[in-house]
Specification:
Elements (H helix, E strand, L loop, with lengths): L1 H16 L17 E5 L9 E8 L8 E3 L5 E18 L2 E16 L3 E9 L2 E10 L5 E6 L15 E4 L9 E6 L3 E10 L5 E5 L5 E5 L9 E9 H4 L11 E7 L1
Parallel strand pairs: 1-7, 9-15
Antiparallel strand pairs: 2-5, 3-6, 4-5, 6-7, 8-10, 10-13, 11-12, 11-14, 14-15
Length: about 250
């Protein structure tokens, strides 16, 4: 009797571990953003924005994606990728794992809120999408070697071409923001040497930075990202609060 119990226990133990060596597609968790926030472009033509959904072992078809208010945003495209991994188990065995993910692209139309729902497997998930009006966060922006305030360049666009009037040794960049805004990152890059001056999570509404020696005939790119103070306090672990990014091309 004891021998029979031991054999039965051994068989049950072996059966318990058999599924671990097989691909399990449906058991993987689905990760999705509950909210995503985007800004309208100041240009007339709006650019597509997107968010990602980790599908685990399931897949997603475009027909399973619905937009509750199409006057706010419209569904454009859906891309599904399979990050396939083959893990060795030893003795010639392997454990293939599929990690499917989907990128949902939408095109904003006007400020407002809509809901994007998508069915993965037998369950429907939903992301609340907020579209906000564009606002220029900059109150002032000055760079050595440029004889004017550059802030107003971004009133109706997010990319501006600027002429360097004269060379500037030990050049400084200074900016001030409108009330309620924060600069979450900036980078100033010499496109020839690739030397970059940058900073992240800037708390002060006014700040000055050293950006090296500027020479006429060389090209520089300044990129700045802004978020409202309210957005800065939100959980952005999934990267769905992109803020506003502006770019200055200095020639």
């Amino acid at each position: 009797m004891k021998r029979f119990i031991k054999r039965t226990a051994a068989v049950l133990l072996a059966l318990t571990f058999i599924p671990a060596s097989l691909p399990i597609r449906s058991a993987a968790a689905v990760y999705y953003p509950r909210e995503a926030t985007y800004y309208l472009s100041p240009a007339k033509k709006q650019q597509d924005v997107s968010f990602n959904v980790s599908l685990g072992g399931e897949t997603l078809n475009k027909s399973a994606v619905k937009v509750s208010d199409k006057s706010i945003a419209s569904l454009q495209t859906l891309e599904v990728t399979d990050d396939f991994h083959q893990f060795s188990q030893g003795a010639g065995e392997s454990n293939p794992q599929h990690n499917l993910s989907a990128t949902i692209y939408i095109r904003p139309k006007k400020a407002g809120t809509t809901k994007i729902s998508y069915t993965v497997g037998r369950k429907t998930y939903q992301t609340k999408v907020k579209i906000l009006k564009y606002e220029n966060p900059l109150k002032s922006l000055k760079i050595s070697g440029i004889d004017r305030d550059l802030a107003s360049d971004m009133d109706k666009k997010i990319t501006s071409s600027v002429k360097l009037k004269k060379k500037a040794a030990n050049a400084m960049l200074s900016f001030a923001l409108k009330k309620g805004w924060r600069c979450t990152s900036f980078s100033f890059t010499n496109e020839k040497t690739h030397q970059t001056y940058s900073a992240n999570y800037i708390q002060a509404a006014k700040q000055t930075y050293y950006v090296g020696n500027l020479k006429k005939g060389q090209k520089y790119t300044l990129q700045m990202t802004f978020k409202t103070e309210e957005m800065c306090s939100m959980d952005d672990s999934q990267g769905n609060i992109p803020g506003i990014t502006v770019t200055y091309k200095i020639r």
